[in-house]
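Consider the subject:
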Amino acid sequence: MHQDTASAELNLALRDNLTLINKGFVQALCLRFHDSKQRAQLAYADNLAETRRLMQLLVEMQRQDMPLDPDGVSENPDRGGPDLQSKAKEIWLSDFRLAARKLESLRRGQTSLKSSRPDRSGSLGLDRLIEEGEEFAADLRDRSNGIENLDQFDPTRVASDAERKTLEDFLGYVEGIEEAFMAGKTETTRPENDPVFTVLNTVLSNHFLAIDQFFLHGFLLHKSNEKALAKERIMHSVDEMKGAFRATQRILVLGSVPRPIFLQDIRSPYCVRVGSGPLEAIRNDLELTEKLIVNLQGAKELAETASESRSVDMLSDLVHMESDAKRRLSTQLEQLSNGETSGNGSDKIDTMLDRWGVA
């Protein structure tokens, strides 16, 4: 009973952790465009730290043989969109509320684990996550009250090698960067209620879902010893994050900010479906990818109607990316259905965990 309670609580923490990462990344881009590089870097550093904490949480849950099911513990089959904000104070306050809720779930989960195993000390990894969660929530509360530390980023003080990268590093290598975004300038004066913004925000929401599901399946496949497939799922999740960047960039350059406004005809319900094993995981990802292609094609048609050529080009690129992924997934599903395995291969996931300082 205590184990089931712990699993439910840690999946709630997992859901909030995923949301913090997605919204944090987009909000860092908003601050870069509208505010300052210093605040943007502060938000981006938060994003990287939450990414490390996410991986630590996943490792801890898998050690306890808990299912990775962030949306299965919710009565609502569609969690909706995150509380995206674009101004510093509202960002810090929104993130504080979410971080505090995640922290409480971690505490309850750890308490349930200790109750179920009184002869053991619990989880040192969860203890670390709770300690960091307390510090993070306190920092966000201070920021929301106007107490900010905008000192120059110091890479020697971060917790892992991966966190030494800055937002400017990311912008230096990501594809599809626009000069107007880098300069913080809008290229048009579209009205706030222009339908193209609803289209782009819907595309962004679909990317959030794909980022989450593919990343979790990377860990599931890794545990199942399908390491080549695990690496590919993680890399596709990163591609989805780059797609989220391009959608956010378009929204900002067109003169709006990312918001949870959706066009249901081209939106996938925000509910991560994690498989119970490799075959179901690949089947779920193929189904999601097929939906992404249909929704992106619908978004492209709407962008063409709105004469938004740059969005059309972006959406064409994303359709191509998902179509390539669909072909790979179809082949992998056939191989797994026939009892074949992707083999061990080189263990890229363990290398990734080492780079992120995950125990």
In short: The chain has a mean pLDDT of 93. The domain at 179-359 is CATH 1.20.1260.10 (Ferritin). The chain has two domains: 1-173, 179-359. The longest helix spans residues 2-34.
